[in-house]
Please model this.
Amino acid sequence: MTLTTMTRHSALILIGNEILSGRTRDENTQFLAKKLGELGIPLREVRMIPDTREVIIRCVVELRAAFDEVFTTGGIGPTHDDITSPCVAEAFGVPLEHHTPTFTLLENHFGKENFNAARQRMAYLPQGATPIENPISLAPGFSLGNVHVMAGVPRIMRAMFDNLAPRLKKGTPVLSITWHVFSLYEGSLAEGLEAIQNLYPQLDIGSYPFHRENGIYGVALIAKGQDSAAVQKAASDIRTLIAATGGEPIQGEPF
Amino acid sequence: MTLTTMTRHSALILIGNEILSGRTRDENTQFLAKKLGELGIPLREVRMIPDTREVIIRCVVELRAAFDEVFTTGGIGPTHDDITSPCVAEAFGVPLEHHTPTFTLLENHFGKENFNAARQRMAYLPQGATPIENPISLAPGFSLGNVHVMAGVPRIMRAMFDNLAPRLKKGTPVLSITWHVFSLYEGSLAEGLEAIQNLYPQLDIGSYPFHRENGIYGVALIAKGQDSAAVQKAASDIRTLIAATGGEPIQGEPF
Model:
């Protein structure tokens, strides 16, 4: 039997000064990381960058060449610091265009008298872009080639991603099995774990120690990858290793 | 009077598959972003990358050339996926060396019989590195040139950063003043806000809408920068703008 896994990789660009200043804690990476793993398009790089034209353009150009899919969040609202759309247009070398269906949608929503110049900016999309519907605040994101531009507000981003997901080309889902053990340090498990990694080079075998304020410590050991039979075998080997080292293997996340 | 602000910029590299897979939510960026703003070395870019040799090396080389200081978290433990130290050594073109004081410290801590090959790896540092003390689990981080390598476990990272901070060359602290307003959309404030940004080009004037599940919405408007007199004037202008648009300006974070 030959195993066919289709490996597709993605990158995420979080655009906005508020994360870099520590004002806002990023809630979008974890959501997208899990969803993209399930879709078989796992995240391989995330960049958090400021609302700076040259930085955004350089980042989009670089990452869309390096990854199958690129997602962005942030910078598509009506204010002066919302510059993602023109930057993505420039990264693709296409003009921003008045998008009539979006203009009509927003004009009806805000009313003619409140649909001011700032809000009208949200009705301009790069030439050739496909809108990503926004059921919450209406102004859409868009896909252009392999770049998918979404809002930064987590609730809106999640709604946009739900609309985008069915259009994405899927790969083989990532399977992950976790064992926890308390009161063992990873240094005691390291040698055996490396041997397991060497048995399954197509997987990520990870070791994540924890040290709580209350003195509780231990390690989470994870087998992860797109070859599900190998993930299951490696997880079984990890279980055996923990028991052989004198620990009690606990499956899943005990917290 | 001339104003002298010393602008120093930093970047952060979060190394580890566990954030990219969504297993772990990043807790380190927000802590470091705030601390580095206070020290006048604000974060300008964050990258989350996997435990992959070429990616780590390329990232360190690129960011240490582009920024005054570079911080890394993750990948300095005893297991096979902890490869940050050799990668940083390679990025600087120096060998990894047996670091005798660290070796002695860890050997005394674990005891000779438990100080196995995996744990001994933590006593190797790049040639010329200065250890960053780790009061919790003892194995140190290190500084090499403008690159500062810390643990990924948040509690250990924070303790290491507290030890590192006094050695960092400081810049002018970043001051930030926030106004909130409920029940206004940023589209109504955008034009006035852009005019304020144009008055103070040395500042970041930011607009951050929020939309809660319970239907509550509004905007946070922020003046931020290293020119504290200008930040105060811009914040006062923002307050006036909110009131003139029919909103009630609330200082700080009302949540």
Chain B has a mean pLDDT of 94. The radius of gyration of chain B is 22 Å. Chain B touches chain A through 69 residues (CB under 8 Å). Residues 85 and 129 of chain B are 10 Å apart (CA to CA).
